[in-house]
Amino acid sequence: MALLRPDLIQALLPxxxxxxxxxxxxxxxxxxxxxxxxxxxxxxxxxxVAYWLHRYYFRVVSAGHENIPLSRGGxxxxxxxxxLPFDGAMVSTDVFRHTDPPRLVRxxxxxxxxxxxxxxxxxxxxxxxxxxxxxFDGLIEEGHLVGIFPEGADALGKxxxxxxxxxxxxHGHVELAARHGAPVIPFGVVGAExxxxxxxxxxxxARALNLPFIPVTRTFPxxxxxxxxxxxxxxxxxxxxxxxxxxxxLESIEVRASEVERVRDxxxxxxxxxxEHRRLVDEGRA
Amino acid sequence: MNEGHEDDRVVNxxxxxxxxxxxxxxxxxxxxxxxxMDSTPTLLRPGPRRILIAGARRKIAGELIACLxxxxxxxxxxxxxEGACPPGLLGHDPNRFMYHxxxxxxxRQVDNLFLFEEFREHPLDTVVHLAFxxxxxxxxxxxxxxNVNAARHLLDASLRHGIGKYVFLSSDAVxxxxxxxxxxxxxxxxxxxxxxxxxxxRDIIDAEFYCRAKMDSPGCEVMVLRPAGVIGGGVMSGLNxxxxxxxxxxxxxxxxxxNPTTKERLARDIQLALMLRGxxxxxxxxxSPGPLTRFLEQRGITPMRVPGPLLRQANRLQRMIGQTxxxxxxxxxxxxxxxxxxxxxxxxxxxQRASMLSAG
Lengths: 286, 360
Prior knowledge:
Chain A has 286 residues and is α/β, with parallel strands linked by helices.
């Protein structure tokens, strides 16, 4: 148990990164957490682990951090894949590492996560909240960066033949961004699609268990839960220029659909940039 | 402060008019002044208060009565309960406090409360309804009648007798709790209308609906207060019973967010609701949200953890051996999922104007 002490876990980090954790301003609501349940200890411990994953396991290469707002709220929107949401964790870690003062991307998470013991509590302590409108409103009104995967949790179980094909986007993110006048920052993650090779999805069983998907991969379920762990692929994360959403999305379904397509195109462009970057790295030209 | 301001208005209006020897015209002027006073949008309800408190045997009622009697604007309190007067209320000034035993699910008995001789000249003007049996143990039709009919009879009688304010103390149990929870639950959040929810919770919602149906009554401000769980003070709230357990039993892997209040804070909030103008449904909660385990830690309590599916059985066993009075069946999801009440509306409409009470 002594090994789980926050000070010991955070001692794994370089001094500069520990200072980064200490400089993160958590708005303590009075009982050691902010109003959303985020705790400084939770963020510190998670960052201590995620930092090493980011740097040495996924060896994340990223660009476009100048597009992330440093003070005001924003909606960070990108593609989702990889069976387990390491892409979300790496985006959060990447933004935390490369913004000064550090900013935390708080993803809107599917509800089923919060019905799972430990996982829901862990997600909440890391600032990740259930994806409800009121939670979105609260985060944006307090000037946070809100992360959304508009493809939904289903995209995590994307089969191998659909790699880097975007599922249809839900519309909520543009509507909420327009309502709050918040910019949408598109990002593309390249690499997460290869961390697991999904062969098929056991949909009837998933429906019976109230889960978004149950994948069959090259390693799962054959190796048990360990088969869900990702391969050490290199991630490429690119952030695009902020998009201002047309306020008319609140009045016209056609405008809303076209704005959703604009965001989707922007995400697709960041994926293209990431794939190109990866090709150059693989060829030893970058 | 507003009372004084209103008194000034009376003086100024009278001073500004010429002395009129004609009594009929003088009467007209008085009526005019009264009309001006009535139409003035003051926040502090003017005049001394005569308050009926139903459910006087509850701990929160004792705290509220003590709190109210410290205020010189409270002229008289009629406390009503089932059975004898609780010892804690016996020491109050008999000129300002009286206790009466009544069965609130009987319409006639409720009506009689408004007809006491003490209130003939100066009738009751405020009703606080705290009488609610939330204990799921031994629930039967008589409990249902007590819970729902008492609320209906009290409200009907209040409207008939010209009561200016009716406050019903509801509960946060009316809200649906689950993984889809908002970080703060506002008054318009989804209600717990699940058919499997405890009957006493449905009684609270029933009683609330009666209140909401009468909220547009022109002469009576009908308020429903939904308090967060109360910790401490020996109250019979679910949260407090959990905290008093030996030990509290919680599900493994869950640590919901709560923002509990205290008996003292709740009494103060009800007092504000009684003294200031306002109607509608309001959440009232404690000052700060936090994880349940943090509140337990602060009180030096170490919980015991069991797997979630075994929680009810563990709670039943614990009750059988007398180690807890907490009922996990009452709000079964409460120990799994967060419920933090958003009381920003109450804060803005009442607490921020609390200085009016002290100034008055």
